[in-house]
Amino acid sequence: MENSFSGKKVLLTAGPTYEPIDPVRFIGNHSTGKMGYALAACFAAHGAQVQLVSGPTNLAAQHPAIQVTSVTTADEMYEAVKLLAEDADIWVFAAAVADYKPKVAADKKLKKSDAELTIELVKNVDIAAALGKQKRADQFSVGFALETDNEGENAKVKLQKKNLDMIVLNSLRDAGAGFRHETNKITIIEQEATTLFSLKHKDEVAQDIVNLVWERLHA
Length: 219
Hints:
By secondary structure, the protein is α/β, with parallel strands linked by helices. The protein is 26% helix and 27% strand. It has a single domain, classed as CoaB-like (Rossmann fold).
């Protein structure tokens, strides 16, 4: 499988998005981007050309076949992905995109005054769902779901809603899985199959995901 993805172009999102409240505060999450960067490295090691659209992380892509586009907000990530999606053979949506953003971001730091502060939030674009509406039959799409309850049912709904070929499910109930860990424990859900994996280092998890994508493309 050394160059099994030779000639393939992979579009991959990773990391969190930060949605500004004012110039010094934001809404975000605990994603480190490690899973997405591990996937980018794995695909590149197997011959793929990878376009990695990354939210704010402390990571750096080392492989020369990985081209990084750095973004901050969900809107910026969506705009970058739209430009790259049509040319890619495989889409992998590993980023933890913030679901909501402040309706208005203040241009100056909000001063502490009243005992309470109310911020009106609006929904961000669902990048995977938006791209799923234009996915061609020859493109393969992988999504991620981080759940805390009704994990399998919620993941299957997302699989259908976002026109994904497979979805990688993480559960925060599993020790050592999810954000801020070097390890992860996943279940990959497809239309006709569910594959469970044990707790592993994220580099090994990335290899498991890449292996299964290869199997489905060569079935």
